[in-house]
Amino acid sequence: MTLPDTGSGSPRPASSPPPRWAWVLLFLAAITTVLLPYLLWRSTWFGAPLADADIVRFLEGDDPEDIQHALEQLSRRLGAGQPAAPYAPALLELTSHREPAVRLTVAWLLGEEGKSPAFREALLGLLEDDHAGVRFNAGLALCRFGEPAARAVLLEMLRPLAVPSPCAGEVLERRGPGSRVRPGGALITLGQGSDTVDIPSPLLGKLLEGGAALGDRVAIGDPLVILDPEAEQILQALVGLGIVGLAEDEAAIEEVLLAHPGHDRIRTQGRATLERIRMGARAQAEAEASASGLGG
User: Fold this and answer.
1) Residues 130-150: what's their mean pLDDT?
2) Span 216-231, pLDDT tens digits
3) Is 129 helix (H, G, I), strand (E, B) or coil?
4) Looking at the structure, do residues 70 and 185 belong to the same domain, yes or no?
5) Most buried pick, 90, 127, 137, 160, via CB within 10 A?
6) Element (H, E) at 218
7) Where a domain ends, among 229, 250, 270?
8) Model confidence, pTM
9) What are phi and psi of 162, to 5 degrees?
């Protein structure tokens, strides 16, 4: 795999696989803050073991709870080194499942395997998902492939998120600024004539000022609330950028460090990420200079 051209006109060297320490750190962070809340489907932990045939049957079924059960079990198997190939058709089919929680978990599992070209292509498609949690997990998972296309989503993870309205309606209730929300927790209630629709939070975070006010009428895509990212989400993005980030991402990382001056972990990880990006840029420059000398 080669990195995309950034306009310099000179070829980039082939990207090396991300180091094992970086992927392990990324996995440990994301399993607790991004993946785990969705494996706790309706406050139920799926710990009962399943046979391989049951995993396939659940993955191909219609019940989201059964699918989540199978995905949790499959995560354990892949983590232990079991090949994903027998489950690949079902997993790829689930990338378009109606439930964001299913798509989010599948995105992480595709990255856990980290080798299949078909999985990589499916993850690239999930970078455009309407649900922020799905996009973010796809971006983190693509770091396992050393995929530069993940950069835009990783940078998005560093910033507050404007949660768009999935439908039109009038704002009847909403959580106030400073409120902490969990994935799936109600953010806002919209009225549609005699009906009401509760809009869930896509992520763990804290509400900031801004968005729609009580009584406002909103259209599809209008910002409902502004969600401040949790520190763990920022840390995940910084680790990911240490794997696939480019020199042009340094300004965004520096902004994060300025915005969190008292957070030791963010400061430490941010500096480590900047150093890794700069080391990569120096290595690329040396490779280009060497190639130029040989060509001369």
Assistant:
1) 95
2) 999 999 999 999 999 9
3) coil
4) no
5) 137
6) strand 217-218
7) 229
8) 0.82
9) -85, 110
